[in-house]
Amino acid sequence: MKEMRGTSRLQNQPQRHYGITSPISLAPPKDIDCVQTEKLVEAMRPFGVFEDEEEQNHRLVVLSKLNNLVKEWISELGESKNLPPSAAANVGGKIFTFGSYRLGVHTKGADIDAVCVAPRHVERSDFFQSFFEKLKHQEKIKNLRAVEDAYVPVVKFEFDGIEIDLVFARLSMQTISDNLDLRDDSRLRSLDIRCIRSLNGCRVTDEILHLVPNKENFRLTLRAIKLWAKRRGIYSNMLGFLGGVSWAMLVARTCQLYPNALASTLVNKFFLVFSKW
After folding, report:
1. Confidence at residue 3, expressed as pLDDT on a 0 to 100 scale
2. Are the C-beta atoms of residues 273 and 257 closer than 8 Å to each other?
3. Distance between CA atoms of 151 and 33, rounded to whole angstroms?
4. Res 83: pLDDT
5. Predicted TM-score (pTM) of this structure
6. Is 189 helix (H, G, I), strand (E, B) or coil?
7. What is the rounded distance in angstroms from the CA atom of residue 268 to the CA atom of residue 263?
8. H-assigned helices in 48-192
9. 98-109 pLDDT, tens per residue?
10. Cα distances (angstroms) measured from residue 160 to each of 23, 79, 93
11. Which positions are annotated as active-site residues?
12. 263 vs 254: CA distance, rounded Å
């Protein structure tokens, strides 16, 4: 009911339009929509689509440790390349997540897609050599392997039980700050094509989240649609079906067309819209 009151207040204000066309409906949710959305959540629970708080916190701890490793490595590399000690200590570097984890729709036990963003003194060869060696010596990292000849070169490993696919991007900047915005197109200037590909995942994910009216409604709807697609064996771009980003874009478009709808309604509208697309 609290959510409905907030949505009702929205009706009294000019509402921002998302996407390239106006919404089909601005109708606020009814009581029955709230009930049906709660039922949708309960129906999905047995399929492991929601992590508990302990698992979520564990992922955050692992990502924080990985981020610290990246900063430490970039600083050490700066010193080895004769950067002044004060500069080497402040060049930064950061891990950005993308894919289902960044969208907030990952399932229990899912891997994390991430990109290591480094300043200009760090070469791609450094990432696959010295950083790879640094990872080798970490006690909690297992199954470490590099796939340098992939379309998007990647280092894969398991960090304290969490599987991580880590790609690399080098920006033409002296330092990488913690508040760096990768949606800024100017960041792509003079970049190697492999670095642009590595950044694409993060940029697309952030753009999708930026273009939906309500992130929580979007996430719950996408969880439902992903579960439906996986249960029917049609969730895989490698097999010629739609992959994660494609399903996310379709759900995001549905959210734009029905910006005030709850997840139970959005799931229904998803099939209505795309059965007539």
Report:
1. 43
2. yes
3. 44
4. 82
5. 0.88
6. coil
7. 9
8. 53-80, 85-88, 99-103, 124-126, 132-136
9. 999 999 999 999
10. 45, 29, 22
11. 100, 111, 113, 165, 226, 235
12. 11
